């Protein structure tokens, strides 16, 4: 009919720009078992969510990896699914924050962005012999004795912590050293100054910004075993000891920081990336453990006990080690952490063997727990 638009899109009202009061934020958690995305409104109410299982790859006994290409597809998918579940549009998202499993890392080509290997998980044991060798080495004995002497004269907590320091497979340090020793492609890229290193947060930031941003935050950096929480920077001593070039490591930013924006091609709109944080520290913050002495215990793939130690890191005592909880502006919160890395995995293994059920676990625990009056709680 005359006067009617011939283009079906023509004549439709232009979508109005989202008003400030309609803004939503995305909270993403890339865990060891599950990757989740939640949509929150300005009142902090959950409006939509999505989750997918993280699949680990075990090419050899003791090796634990994650396929980065699969993880990226899952990451993008849970964002799209959660936004759809919330019944909103991408242009209503005003920012996102990312929490990730810690000390799981990857290296990639600086020019092409192509990765040299899968993510090496914090659960991976390929460097176990390196760990044993270093911890029993003459060099470590000299370091410990020297630092004990320095602590005696200076009373510096930093030297006391160094006198008790040992390597573990959970640290990035010796797993990265293993990669540098065994992958020729990585060695060549380092020689050509064409290699980047990152934990999951750094790699996701790189992918989301199409390579324009390269950074991590203090909470993630402090869990690598390559970071000095007393000096608040990458440890030149540890990196030189293990022949790890400092040039591989990303700049360290505040936990709450403008890390750039998601490239518009990915979701159709640029979305500001406003926070990167390690998962256990994120749990600490989420449980409002803001005061010195506050404690949180999380039980997932592993069990992690964290204590807020204020603005100063504490020395390694009784199996606890110092980490940075978060840094926001001038505020620095330190934590002391102890962990048992395989509790959830062990329970899952027992369940798969048919040796354990959640009902059995609950009944066993109920028999041991006393209520506030001191009477025994039981379940029949």
Automatic annotation (TrEMBL):
**Sorted alphabetically, which InterPro entries does this protein's record hold?**
ATPase_NBD, FGGY_N
* UniProt xrefs under Pfam families: FGGY_N
Instruction: Tell me which residues make up the Carbohydrate kinase FGGY N-terminal domain.
Output: 25-286
- Gene Ontology terms describing biological process: glycerol metabolic process; glycerol-3-phosphate biosynthetic process; triglyceride metabolic process
Q: Per the record's keyword annotation, is Transferase included, yes or no? A: yes
Q: Which GO terms describe its cellular component?
A: mitochondrion
Q: Does the keyword Transferase apply?
A: yes
**Keywords associated with the record:** Kinase, Transferase
Give a GO molecular function annotation for the protein.
Answer: kinase activity
The entry sums up its family as follows: Belongs to the FGGY kinase family.
Judging by the UniProt lineage, the source's domain of life is Eukaryota
Report the protein name in the record. Answer: Putative glycerol kinase 5
Q: Where is this region: Disordered?
A: 1-22
């Amino acid at each position: 009919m005359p006067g009617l638009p011939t283009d079906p899109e023509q004549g439709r009202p232009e979508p109005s720009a989202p008003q400030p009061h309609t803004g939503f934020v995305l909270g993403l958690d890339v865990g060891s078992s599950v990757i989740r995305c939640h949509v929150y409104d300005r009142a902090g109410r959950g409006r939509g969510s999505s989750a997918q299982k993280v699949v680990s790859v075990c090419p050899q006994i003791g090796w634990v990896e994650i396929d980065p290409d699969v993880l990226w597809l899952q990451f993008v998918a849970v964002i799209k699914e959660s936004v759809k579940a919330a019944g909103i549009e991408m242009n209503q998202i005003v920012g996102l924050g990312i929490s990730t499993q810690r000390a799981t890392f990857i290296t990639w080509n600086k020019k092409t962005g192509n990765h040299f290997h899968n993510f090496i998980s914090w659960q991976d044991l390929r460097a176990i012999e390196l760990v044993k060798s270093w911890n029993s080495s003459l060099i470590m004995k000299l370091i410990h004795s020297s630092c004990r002497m320095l602590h005696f004269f200076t009373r510096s907590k930093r030297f006391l912590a160094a006198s008790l320091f040992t390597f573990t497979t959970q640290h990035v340090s010796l797993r990265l050293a293993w990669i540098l020793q065994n992958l020729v492609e990585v060695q060549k890229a380092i020689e050509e100054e064409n290699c980047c290193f990152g934990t999951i947060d750094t790699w996701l930031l790189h992918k989301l910004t199409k390579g324009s941003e390269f950074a991590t935050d203090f909470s993630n950096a402090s869990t690598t075993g390559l970071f000095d929480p007393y000096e608040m920077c990458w440890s030149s001593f540890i990196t030189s000891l293990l022949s790890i070039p400092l040039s591989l490591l990303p700049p360290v930013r505040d936990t709450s920081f403008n890390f750039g924006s998601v490239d518009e091609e990915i979701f159709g709109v640029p979305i500001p990336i406003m926070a990167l944080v390690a998962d256990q520290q994120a749990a600490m913050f989420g449980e409002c453990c803001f005061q010195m002495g506050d404690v949180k215990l999380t039980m997932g793939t592993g069990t992690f006990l964290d204590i807020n130690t204020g603005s100063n890191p504490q020395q390694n005592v009784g199996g606890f080690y110092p980490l940075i909880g978060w840094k926001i502006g001038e505020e620095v919160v330190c934590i002391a952490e102890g962990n048992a890395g395989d509790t959830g995995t062990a329970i899952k293994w027992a369940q798969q063997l048919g040796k354990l059920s959640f009902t059995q676990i609950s009944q066993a625990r109920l028999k041991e727990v006393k209520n506030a009056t001191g009477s025994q709680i039981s379940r029949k």
